[in-house]
Write a structure and sequence with these properties.
The protein is mostly helical and 249 residues long. It contains 13 helices and two strands. It has two domains: 72 residues, Winged helix-like DNA-binding domain superfamily/Winged helix DNA-binding domain (Arc Repressor Mutant, subunit A), CATH 1.10.10.10; 163 residues, Four Helix Bundle (Hemerythrin (Met), subunit A) (Up-down Bundle). Helix content is 73%, strand content 3%. β1 and β2 form a beta hairpin. GO terms for molecular function: DNA binding; DNA-binding transcription factor activity.
């Protein structure tokens, strides 16, 4: 049990160090506090810090310069995600938590993106939605991922993008369901079109509201029994005005 507690502490400290790097806007080559200072900052023993540092060195996030201390090595998103992936592998995240995070962050991200999105990014999301192949569930799921990732990038906020990477790993389950039936893909596609139209107009309120509705639709899909959600979504389609993507001149 002691070893397990030690591993948990080390995982927590590793995440705290990553959080420190991000919040301090540190860059590769910047020096980190010493192990002693980190232990004091996080209120843990130096063995826990040493174990966390070792894991981050192996991950390629931190370098140890002998006699000089700890330095940031790489801020690649995939490497920063490793502690979170470990938590996912251990089953610490579940679907309900995923939806809570999506409901909290994605409408806010859409609002921010509507305010800050560049012309090039608008062209990118337009192309993603216009070229989405509703007949191919696999390519549609990939376009779904690209659209949400581009919106998070448009916020210009690195932490939003990092959160999106976490969500994207966890969202594979919902994409399997949303991609299973053409009727569902049509609803998701209509949601995407509305979101893109709001981004085109740089309408923050509409972008946030349409993203909120989109997440609500995803929750509805996942909450419904598989035997009934197909018919339920047919009703959703019938009640939705058909929307076509129009590119503003």
């Amino acid at each position: 049990m002691g070893s397990l507690d030690g591993n948990r502490k080390a995982n927590i400290v590793a995440n705290e160090i990553i959080d420190l790097i991000l919040k301090s806007d540190m860059k590769p080559g910047d020096k980190l506090p010493s192990e002693r200072e980190l232990a004091q900052r996080f209120g843990v023993g130096r063995p826990s810090v040493r174990e966390a540092v070792s894991a981050l060195v192996i991950s390629g996030i931190i370098d140890i310069h002998q006699g000089d201390g700890l330095y940031v090595s790489d801020l690649d998103v995939d490497k920063l995600m490793m502690p979170f992936r470990l938590c996912m592998d251990l089953g610490k995240f579940n679907y309900e938590q995923l939806m809570e995070i999506r409901e909290l962050f994605e409408p806010a991200a859409a609002e921010m993106a509507a305010r800050l999105i560049t012309d090039e990014q608008i062209e990118e999301v337009e192309a993603i939605v216009r070229n989405s192949n509703l007949e191919n569930p696999y390519s549609f799921a990939e376009d779904d991922r690209k659209l949400h990732t581009t919106i998070f990038k448009a916020t210009g906020n690195y932490l939003f993008l990092l959160i999106m990477q976490i969500v994207d790993n966890l969202a594979s389950l919902s994409r399997e369901v949303t991609g299973r039936y053409l009727e569902v893909r049509k609803v998701v596609h209509q949601d995407h079109i509305r979101i893109v139209q709001a981004l085109q107009k740089r309408d923050e309120k509409a972008a946030g509201e349409y993203m909120k509705q989109h997440i609500e639709h995803i929750r509805m899909i996942m909450d419904l029994n598989e035997d009934v959600f197909k018919s339920e979504f047919l009703k959703v389609i019938q009640n939705m005005d058909n929307v076509d993507l129009k590119v503003d001149p």
